[in-house]
# Entry
Amino acid sequence: MNKKPTLAIIVPCYNEETVLPVTGPQFHEKLNDLIQGNLVSKDSKIVFIDDGSRDSTWEVIVDLASLSPYYSGLRQSRNRGHQNAVYAGLMESKEWADITISIDSDGQDDINAMDEMIAAYYAGSDIVYGVRNDRETDTFFKKTTAQAFYKLMDWLGVESVYNHADYRLVSSKVLEKFAEFDEVNLFLRGMFPLVGFQSTSVYYKRNERIAGESKYPLRKMLHLAFEGITSLSIKPIRFVTILGLLMAFMSFAIIIWIFVRFFTGNTVSGWASNATLLSLFCGVQLISLGIIGEYVGKIYLEVKHRPKYIISERTEDRTIV
Ligand code: UDP
Ligand code: MG
# Structure
């Protein structure tokens, strides 16, 4: 009756050949401690998801898997981005694991927070958010943009945990329900609060990346931010409508003004105001079209219902031979 829960540590990896040989054994040691401490079952595993890396990440994973049964790996058929890599790991593990913890591969998330996460699980939480309690290791730019983003999300009515990224414990009970969320556009940190169940947060200090470079350039960061907003909030579309109404109201006033000018015989001096208004209205219309287009694009992708991940190889397949 007293069976310990089986843990899957989900580690997405994209071009991390310099990082994995260092962090892999760290995860292993942590898992070993948890098993020795009788907190999780000895069937627990570390699941690396190679997100279509172009370097030797997959070979590193295969090598690790040959060293210990605690290591396992999935290889995605191509790069699909961090969110989809984590999703693949979660969905592939939920059948055999009772709890999953997703964590970055680069050593930035403090592995010691796992003990607290598991303690919170024992205390009854089905989702435990890892929340960083400082941003000292971030650049000023990353710090301010990240903060602005959380504020914006909040303002747009998207429920998300402040300063929580993707370091998170989730039970299979939640994943079972989460799998019913059919959307193709993934923004995991904003979706888990929607599943419900009892949740809590644990705090940790985020470290520097152990080696290599961030795989989240500004382009990917902006993409994630857009994804998060347009996947989970329809407020921007409502703003467009309100903006349109305001503009219509304004132009009504402007028409009256034009009439007054016309009847007082002052019509020649209108070029500057005309040009200004023209460009203003053009700008507003293009922005509005863009926002609507963003949602139409989302609908297009959702309707296609493409698979969110495709696994091309597994380390288990190799060991069985
Ligand atoms: N990652 C991924 N696919 C991608 C980009 C990143 O699986 O397309 C992984 C990466 O290997 C790392 C995690 O996502 O384990 C977070 O990425 P990174 O550390 O580069 O982001 P940052 O910490 O700079 O935000
Ligand atoms: Mg990182």
